[in-house]
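pinging the channel bc i need a second pair of eyes. not urgent but kinda urgent?? the chain im working w is below, pasted from the shared doc
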Amino acid sequence: MPANLTPQYHEAEAKFRAAVTAEEKIAALEEMLAVIPKHKGTEKLQADIKRRISKLRQKEASSNRGKHGVFYHVEKEGAGQIIVTGSPNSGKSLIVRRLTNAEPEVAEYPFTTRKPMPGMMEFEDILIQLVDSPPIVKEGTESWVIAMPRSADAVLLVADLASDSVVEDVENVYSALSSNKIILTAPGKIISSEYPIGTVFRNAIIAANKLDKPEAAENLELLRELCEIELPIVPISALSGEGLEALKSEIFRMLEIVRVYTKLPGKPPDKEKPFVMKRGSTVDDLTAAVHRGFVGKVRFARAWGRNVPDGAMVGRDYELDDGDIIELHV
């Protein structure tokens, strides 16, 4: 089938030939990809354009690594910060776009994401920050990309179920982080002390993306059976939306936080903005979050929740549960 390329395509191609910098070439190639007629006769040409874009992105990333002082920091917001990481073209950006208010660039070629893109995900009555980050490859990933999970609360590792090397890809990401003393662990896992000084541990889950692809079922089975990383796997399709609600619930659980509501005696509870506390927090911890001036002055509290009778009197060492309503008595 003939390609039948349009004048718009030839115009974009002329821009590419005249381009000098990598940035100019990438922009021209992206324009060529956008205007090229999509049919069987241009499939090879489309693949070649994507390959060129990917190669230029990698080259651009390599040149940036030679520059000192390249660093990105994303200020934490909401109930927790989740770094979304994975191999190239795994669908990280589309996941963040579907779950949050952010609009990261989404394309069919790898290395689209070049700097972090944060967005806020709604989960019931709280917001959780997801940060789309550049992909991690076996060699050549910038140090700041690998360091991002160190300051985050947890990690969402995206696996590409359309890739025949999905197991290797996931293990490469895990290995790159481990080599930099960032250990991904399953939520609730007991950690041994046999690690070097400076090692940090971050709860993580695997979002097995592209469940809509024909090869997904087979690759998901391979991931479950052969992957040596013991992390929970949540199958999803960012494209169709399948599994995204389950993923949101798992992200919340991964943070190991509880939502606590306060009330004044004789008044209804404030259900608008819960206090978000780490699991294991007590009434004393809640008191400090409500007002520093109350610390040590609370005589007792009353609690409403799943683990106590309504209005039960509890002490300052009472461990808070998700959804508890607490009435402090000073």
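so The longest strand covers residues 200-209. and Residues 27 and 299 are 65 Å apart (CA to CA). — does that match what u expected or am i reading it wrong
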